[in-house]
């Protein structure tokens, strides 16, 4: 057979393609000419990604705990990226869960004849004083190598990029606290790296077979103390000088509660991150530049690039997008309360859907924003996410994304958006918007709130908030109508009161 000179494309699998790093790595690998197989628990999370329709993208639905299914999904892959983390979903047991999943992945990779595993771990000196979080990262490295498949490990410290957990902590601490009473960790040395450079290294090692089986420290050109990084962040935000007062009494646990209250990061994630801040995270070697020389952004440039991306609404992935999506409960039967309202909107379904998708974040909730803010504050005080998670993009949403203290659990373009409550509640709550095209440029918008109480406190909660529904839900529906008319280019008429379909 004649040699056509066309080189076959290599297939690369990514476990964790719905996460912060994985979602940014996929388009880079596609640009580099790879076939990319996304191993995900919830394929719906990828439905709105701009690259999902690319001919070289494959999506495999698989549970990371199912070794047999994993080996089938990995079959035919040249290499596999392991970007899975259980810190947000597994709570205090995340370290044990992470090690277990890594061992199963390693076994599956061996069975599937994968030639190499690539893992993004964490910087930090080994030893008894290493935090639980960084110790867990080391244990995952060992587990991934347990089956004999060569592992390439890239160890990074703070990753600075729009939407990263580290960036959100920096941003909110600096924006909200002109005076910071901080633990002693603000004097700890750190070598941050821009997310752009992390993606460059991850994609680059695929072209360097000699990096297989090796461990590399990766970091940017600057080694700074955390207080200096906070100062630079304030300068890039054009804010007055922030006064930082370290005190020895603030333990990592107390620091995590402080991070939870001030920033969008929840306590389950803030605690291991805060504990890790006591450890200096500085590269001990720079061998990666011998294999993959590339210009690196300094801390100031990385922070400036992140703020620019946020300002231009180009945030590709967000830290809150990772993690499992709970199954939608069966709302039929039982003690389920329902608040349903509907109205006719003189706008096409596409405009109504766009208006619905703008809820939350900087847009607010169309009515009684002060009540939403109060509910968010109370939620934050009792350990919930509150409103600070905001949203990744001010206009578009997708399955699995966070909208303040809600999570998108249903998404049908121009037809349906369903939000499941993640605030602290004595029960389960769902807020659903359904749109029906009535023809002639008119649409029926139906808004339904469902609540399944948990015990007597759930019943008391529902009856306590029912009097506010007329303000919150009726106002929201009318606000969506007005916004849909604006988006459709129509003129806003005096608002007709929504039809209350009943509250029970």
- For the termini, the CA-CA separation is 73 Å
Q: Strand count, sense and closure of the main sheet?
A: 7 strands, parallel
| Mean pLDDT over all positions | 86
* CATH class value of the largest domain: Alpha Beta
Notes on the structure:
This protein has helices spanning 20-31, 67-74, 94-111, 132-144, 165-176, 195-204, 226-236, 252-262, 267-276, 288-291, 299-311, 349-356, 369-381, 455-487; strands at residues 11-15, 35-40, 57-61, 79-82, 116-122, 151-156, 159-160, 179-182, 189-190, 193-194, 215-218, 224-225, 243-246, 337-345, 402-403, 406-412, 416-421, 427-439, 442-453, 499-503. α3 (94-111) runs parallel beside α4 and α12 packs across α14. The chain folds into 2 domains: 11-317, Rossmann fold, CATH 3.40.50; 337-503, START domain (Alpha-D-Glucose-1,6-Bisphosphate, Chain A, domain 4, 2-Layer Sandwich), CATH 3.30.530. The termini are far apart. A 7-stranded parallel sheet has the order 3-2-1-4-5-6-11, with helices on both faces. Strands 15-16-17-18-19-14-20 form a 7-stranded antiparallel sheet. 35% of the residues lie in helices and 21% in strands. The protein is an alpha/beta fold and 504 residues long.
């Amino acid at each position: 057979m004649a040699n056509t000179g066309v080189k076959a494309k290599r297939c690369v699998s990514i476990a964790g393609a719905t996460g912060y790093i994985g979602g940014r790595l996929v388009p880079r690998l596609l640009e580099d000419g790879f076939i990319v197989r996304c191993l995900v628990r919830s394929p719906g999370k990828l439905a709105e990604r701009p690259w999902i329709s690319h001919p070289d993208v494959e999506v495999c639905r698989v549970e990371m705990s199912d070794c047999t299914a994993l080996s089938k999904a990995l079959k035919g892959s040249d290499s596999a990226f392991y970007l899975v983390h259980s810190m947000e979903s597994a709570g205090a047991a995340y370290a044990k869960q992470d090690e277990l999943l890594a061992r199963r992945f390693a076994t599956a990779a061996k069975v599937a004849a994968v030639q190499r595993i690539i893992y993004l771990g964490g910087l930090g000196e080994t030893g008894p004083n290493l935090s639980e979080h960084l110790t867990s990262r080391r244990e995952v490295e060992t587990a991934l190598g347990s089956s004999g498949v060569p592992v390439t490990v890239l160890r990074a410290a703070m990753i600075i990029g729009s939407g990263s957990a580290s960036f959100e902590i920096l941003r909110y601490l600096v924006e909200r606290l002109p005076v910071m009473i901080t633990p002693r960790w603000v004097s700890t040395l750190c070598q941050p790296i821009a997310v752009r450079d992390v993606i460059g290294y991850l994609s680059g090692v695929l072209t360097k077979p000699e990096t297989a089986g090796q461990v590399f420290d990766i970091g940017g050109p600057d080694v700074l103390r955390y207080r200096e990084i906070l100062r630079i962040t304030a300068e890039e935000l054009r804010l007055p000088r922030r006064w930082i007062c370290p005190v020895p009494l603030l333990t990592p646990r107390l620091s995590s509660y402080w991070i939870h209250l001030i920033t969008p990061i929840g306590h389950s994630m803030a605690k291991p991150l805060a504990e890790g801040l006591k450890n200096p995270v500085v590269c001990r070697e720079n061998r990666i530049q011998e294999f993959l020389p590339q210009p690196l952004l300094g801390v100031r440039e990385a922070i400036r690039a992140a703020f620019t991306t946020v300002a231009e609404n180009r945030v590709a992935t967000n830290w809150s997008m990772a993690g499992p999506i709970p199954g939608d409960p069966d709302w039929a039967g039982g003690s389920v309360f329902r608040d349903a309202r509907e109205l006719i909107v003189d706008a096409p379904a596409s405009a109504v859907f766009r208006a619905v998708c703008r809820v939350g974040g900087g847009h607010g909730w169309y009515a009684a924003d002060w009540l939403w803010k109060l509910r968010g504050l109370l939620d934050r005080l009792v350990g919930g996410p509150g409103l600070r998670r905001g949203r990744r993009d001010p206009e578009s949403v997708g399955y699995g994304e966070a909208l303040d203290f809600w999570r998108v659990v249903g998404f049908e373009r121009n037809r349906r958006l369903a939000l499941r409550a993640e605030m602290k509640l004595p029960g389960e709550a769902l807020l659903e918007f359904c749109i029906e095209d009535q023809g002639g440029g008119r649409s029926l918008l139906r808004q339904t709130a469902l609540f399944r109480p948990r015990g007597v406190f759930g019943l008391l909660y529902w009856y306590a908030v029912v009097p506010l529904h007329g303000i919150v839900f009726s106002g929201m529906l009318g606000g969506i109508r007005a916004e849909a008319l604006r988006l459709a280019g129509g003129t806003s008429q005096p608002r007709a009161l929504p039809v209350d379909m009943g509250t029970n």
